[in-house]
């Protein structure tokens, strides 16, 4: 989850998010270079007297056509690479269905057992000490770590969006449509997210919590859940 | 989890308000080398030609190109390093998993040597 008043990305917990953070750093470095140049040119212009002596400027026109084209290529190539990487879904180990409702999520594990449960936010009045306000839920989504997981997302009433920033996942939940996304968690842990599409009065109060555990723990959890 | 008994998160220093040079790998070195390149080129040009305006242009150009040049070089090495780390981690995990079993490649090699002799 985010630290208080955090402005940047959370630490990445999936390979795709690591790539996204690296691309973001790359884009910011290019932006820094461009900003430095623009600031310098602005300073020069402010110190110059106004004149209308320029007739044509073939050389500078060539430079400010080719240089931006190069910059765009430098940004576009890694961007497209990551875009296509995000669309690869290569034999997932588990398929999870997430259905958005007003104002909770329903999760279904129907690969091997018919598991289904609702996930409601824990109200602040019932929150145990040390837990996170507006982020904790009564039933977390448990997934095995280091395994490709496919998530199929839809909604039962209005638009929602299933988002977990640290995994680099944000997919709209649209009624009557199935959207697919996938992720791999690189480490065990608890990852928080929130609904990211305005869906009514309690839009801010339907968080998502993904718990990544080793496979044996996941098997134990699914056995306990199906028994209950 | 952040904030649970850990020391305070390291404060960031954002250049021009957006580039966190402390926490982004290679950023600090890029900016420092860029500054050095800017100083060398600008000062060198001024000492050679005594033209202030053109030397400033060279200084800014030197800053941008040195910074970006080192950035690409450093990020490329960083990416290679990370790939090697991943391969090593995977290799160590597989070695522990398969050691002594029929899938152990070292055991297969030893078996082949014995059959060849």
What does this structure look like?
The complex is a heterodimer of chains A (228) and B (117). Chain A is of the alpha+beta class and 228 residues long. Chain A has two domains: 15-87, Helix Hairpins, CATH 1.10.287.90; 94-226, Cupredoxins -  blue copper proteins (Immunoglobulin-like), CATH 2.60.40.420. Chain A has three helices and ten strands, in the order ααββββββββββα. Chain A has helices at 15-47, 58-86, 215-227, and strands spanning 94-101, 104-109, 115-119, 141-144, 149-155, 160-164, 169-173, 179-183, 189-194, 207-213. In chain A, α1 (15-47) packs antiparallel against α2. The radius of gyration of chain A is 24 Å and the shape is elongated. The mean pLDDT of chain A is 92. Chain B is mainly alpha-helical and 117 residues long. Chain B contains three helices and two strands. Chain B has a two-stranded antiparallel sheet with strand order 1-2. In chain B, a hairpin with a 3-residue loop joins β1 and β2 (19-20). Chain B starts with 13 loop residues before the first strand and ends with a helix. Chains A and B meet through α1 of A and β2 and α2 of B. Chain A: InterPro entries: CcO_II (IPR045187), CcO_II-like_C (IPR002429), CcO_II_C (IPR034210), Copper_CuA (IPR001505), Cupredoxin (IPR008972), Cyt_c_oxidase_su2 (IPR014222), Cyt_c_oxidase_su2_TM_dom (IPR011759), Cyt_c_oxidase_su2_TM_sf (IPR036257).
């Amino acid at each position: 989850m985010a630290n208080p008043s955090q402005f940047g990305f959370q630490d990445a917990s999936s390979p795709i998010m690591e790539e996204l953070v690296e691309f973001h750093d790359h884009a910011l470095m290019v932006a820094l270079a461009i900003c430095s140049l623009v600031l310098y040119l602005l300073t020069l212009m402010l110190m110059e007297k106004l004149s209308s002596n320029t007739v044509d400027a073939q050389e500078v026109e060539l430079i400010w056509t080719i240089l931006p084209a190069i910059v765009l290529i430098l940004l576009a190539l890694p961007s497209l690479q990551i875009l296509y990487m995000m669309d690869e879904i290569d034999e997932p180990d588990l398929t999870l269905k997430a259905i958005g409702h007003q104002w909770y999520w329903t999760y279904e594990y129907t690969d091997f057992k018919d598991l289904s449960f609702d996930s409601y936010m824990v109200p602040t009045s019932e929150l145990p000490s040390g837990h996170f306000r507006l982020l904790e839920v009564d039933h977390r989504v448990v997934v095995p770590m280091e395994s490709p997981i496919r998530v199929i997302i839809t909604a039962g009433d209005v638009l929602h969006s299933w988002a977990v920033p640290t995994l680099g996942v944000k997919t709209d939940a649209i009624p009557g449509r199935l959207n697919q996304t996938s992720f791999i968690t690189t480490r065990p842990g608890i990852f928080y997210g929130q609904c990211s599409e305005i869906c009514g009065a309690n839009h801010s109060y339907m968080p998502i919590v993904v718990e990544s555990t080793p496979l044996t723990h996941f098997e134990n959890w699914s056995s306990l859940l199906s028994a209950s | 989890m952040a904030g649970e008994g850990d020391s305070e998160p390291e404060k960031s220093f954002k250049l021009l308000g957006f580039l966190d040079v402390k926490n982004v790998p290679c950023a600090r070195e890029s900016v420092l080398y860029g500054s050095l390149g800017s100083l060398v080129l600008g000062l060198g040009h001024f000492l050679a030609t005594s033209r202030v305006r053109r030397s400033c242009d060279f200084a800014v150009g030197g800053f941008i190109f040195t910074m970006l040049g080192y950035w690409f070089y450093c990020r490329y090495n960083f990416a290679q390093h990370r790939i090697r780390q991943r391969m090593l981690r995977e290799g160590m995990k597989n070695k522990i998993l398969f050691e002594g079993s029929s899938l152990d490649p070292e055991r297969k090699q030893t078996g082949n040597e014995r059959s060849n002799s």
